[in-house]
Design a protein that fits this description.
A hairpin with a 5-residue loop joins β2 and β3. By secondary structure, this protein is of the alpha+beta class. It has one domain.
């Protein structure tokens, strides 16, 4: 399963399942140290692993959409 970190508040990260959009709260102690809002995590072998390639891909798509919207003005 893949998750995007929607929000980090104190010691809790709000994860959103990329496919179902379902949200859940996870203590950041159970996540990789270098996470941030927008990070993509894969749950594998009973732990969360950062997926930097997927994160980069998704950020690029979002930036392209943003730039298209700016050009319409």
């Amino acid at each position: 399963m893949k998750y995007a970190i929607d929000k980090i508040e104190e010691n809790i990260a709000i994860l959103e399942d990329i496919n179902t959009k379902e949200k859940k709260e996870i203590n950041i102690a159970n996540l990789p140290k270098d996470i941030k809002e927008g990070s993509i995590l894969v749950f594998k072998d009973n732990k969360y692993i950062l997926d930097k390639k997927e994160e980069e891909k998704r950020r690029k798509i979002i930036l392209e959409k943003f730039n298209k919207l700016k050009r319409k003005d």
